[in-house]
Amino acid sequence: MDLYKKTASEIKELVLKKEIKSVEVTEDLFKRIDEVEPKIKAYLTLNKESALAQAKKIDEKIARNEKTGQLAGIPIALKDNLCTEGIKTTCASKILNNFIPPYDASVVKRIKEEDGIIIGKTNLDEFAMGSSTENSAFGPSRNPWDPARVPGGSSGGSAAAIAADLAFLALGSDTGGSIRQPAALSGIVGLKPTYGRVSRYGLVAYASSLDQIGPMTKDVRDAALFLNVLAGQDPADSTSVPLETPDHLEKISRGVKGLKIGVPKEFFVAGLDKEVKESIDQGLKVYEKLGAEISQISLPHTEHGIATYYLIAPSEASSNLARYDGIHYGHQTKSSKGLIDMYSQSRSEGFGDEVKRRIMLGTFSLSSGYYDAYYLRALKVRQLIKQDFDEAFKKVDVIMGPTSPIPAFKFGEKAANPLQMYLCDVFTVTTNLAGLPGISIPCGFTKSSLPIGLQILGRPFDETTLLQTAYAFEQKTEFHKTKPRI
Amino acid sequence: MKVDEKQIDHIAALGRLKFTDQQKKIFIGQFSKILEYVEKVKSVDINKIEPLVHTFDQHNVFRPDENKPSLTREQALSNAPEQTKGFFKVPRVIE
Question: Of A70, A216, A483, B48, which has the fewest Cβ atoms less than 10 A away?
Answer without folding.
Answer: B48
